[in-house]
Amino acid sequence: MKILQVIPFFSPKFGGSVTVLYELSKELAKRNHEVTIITSDFGFDSQYAKTIHDAGVEVIPFHCIANFGLFLYTPSIKKWLEKNLKKFDIIHLHNYRSYQNVVIRSFAVKYGIPYIVQAHGSLPRIIEKQSLKKVYDMVWGNTILNHASKIVAVSRSEVDQFRQAGIPNEKITVIPNAVNYISPASLPPVGQFREHYNIHKKHIILYVGRLHKRKGIEFLISAFYSFIQSWTRNDVALVIIGPDGGYQSLLENLVEQIGLSDKVRFIGFLPSLADAYLDADVLVYPSIYEIFGLVPFEALLCGTPVIVTNDCGCGEIIKEAECGYLVLYGDVASLSETLKFSLEHPDINRSMVEAGRRYIEEHLLWDSVVKQVEEMYEGCVRHV
User: Fold this and answer.
1) Which strand ranges, in their side-by-side order, compose the sheet holding 203-208?
2) 3-class secondary-structure state, position 133
3) How far apart (Å, rounded) are the C-alpha atoms in residues 208 and 255?
4) How many domains are contained in the chain?
5) 306 and 323 belong to one structural domain
6) How many CB atoms neighbour CB 169 within 10 A?
7) Among 35, 113, 243, 379, which residue is least crowded by beta carbons within 10 Å?
């Protein structure tokens, strides 16, 4: 099958949607599909593109001549689509509100090529740019959704989002995000992360993800402050890893104001996280409006217990697999108590980690998930 993958930007710094696209494209190429990714050159990571090109996937960036709040205007894409789109069997659009999706929908309809939309949690009009999102939906977005052959949701919470947008059940396909398998034998030496970043506290509480308002990092910092008040020993550090999504200075100011500068470390973006997971006592994933989240499952594969908010997509799985602690978003006292409990009960943590690894191996590895994607593609092509 000739498959066109579409995303507005291409760098792991932009978060999980790029990571999912990257890994999915690699897996499809392994299964002898011809895969092409088209994107913009905004923030383009050429080295990242080279690694997937070496795996047999072509990446084509088009020049971004204007950026309207990550609505990346790449008009040169039209000429390429006129010449090349007809050779593809299926189109997979990643993220929802993009210039690329607007243009490609019109060409896909013109040439009778089925396309799939995977919003990666970007459908709700929340947090920021709500008026602009509403305009996009009215002018282009609703049409893009209505003409799609299938809509991919990664969790029940995302299914509900599409239902509320008026998408019928029969158009929605639930396919979870997948995780790359991490063998215990392949893990780096214990203590490597601590040594590299000169962290000498006995315990590490870890956050991994973009530094953005919807990620719940303020909630985590507030809970950490509450936890410190009852934890009499000066032996715990909160380590925050991830690229700045425009929120880091506010978080640093908050940490300074409440007197935690000596206990909270901002590391920035790291391309490899296994050594950080391995050295952490517990990972906290405090997001709100999160439809999945790969980070907790990566941590579990590295042997690290996890605490997640119970209303996010990964919380559904954590609850089902009984492989982590669940807290209500915004409940500072509950998260504070759960942090304390997790540090004091390593035996319970181990049993949860083992349950998580079993669930991931059975349900969330790429070999299983890519088969579901292939079946969806084939069904869409058959029904053109």
Assistant:
1) 264-268, 236-241, 203-208, 282-285, 306-309, 325-327
2) helix
3) 17
4) 2
5) yes
6) 8
7) 379
52 plus 171 within the same structural domain: yes
pTM of the model: 0.87
**Cβ-contact 25, 1 below 8 angstroms:** no
Residue 290 — very low, low, confident or very high, per pLDDT cuts 50/70/90? confident
Q: Of the candidates 266, 198, 257, 205, which has an alpha carbon nearest to the alpha carbon of residue 231?
A: 205
Do residues 188 and 245 share a domain? yes
Residue 258 contacts residue 224 (beta carbons within 8 Å):
no
Cα Rg, the chain, nearest whole Å: 21
- Same domain for 156 and 217? no
For residue 381, the SS3 value is helix
- Structural domain of residue 164, as residue ranges? 2-178+365-382
CATH code, domain carrying 22: 3.40.50.2000
Average pLDDT value for the chain:
93
Average pLDDT for residues 246-265, to the nearest whole number? Answer: 94
In a shared domain, residues 266 and 370: no
